[in-house]
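Methods — Computational structure assignment.
A single polypeptide chain was analysed. Its primary sequence is given first, followed by the predicted tertiary structure written as structure tokens.
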Amino acid sequence: QVQLVESGGGLVQAGGSLRLSCAASGRTSSSTSMGWFRQAPGKEREFVAAINWSGGSPYYADSVKGRFTISSDNVKNTVYLQMYSLKPEDTAVYYCASDKSLTLLRLSRSVFRSWGQGTQVTVST
């Protein structure tokens, strides 16, 4: 099973930027797609963005389109989430996830899903 380790979270002012990283080890055929989810206090975990290791068009939640960019580096086995124009409502624990396909990754859960431990992002006013 793939192991995922996130990094890059922190405290940033509204309007600022932050880049999250997710290092993947032990990739398998069940981890061909990578994505980011987030969970704010008192709320359910929600999909943010997803991309295939092989390339192609990424997917974004409407709430982050135009502000967040997901990318992957196959050499470093790392997926990034570049976040711009951050808002207080972006405050959440951000989780990296892998799955067998982009379609499955956009679901809340899947039998092929692996999760990272999460990294806190706090956006202050």
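Note: DSSP finds one helix and eleven strands in the chain.
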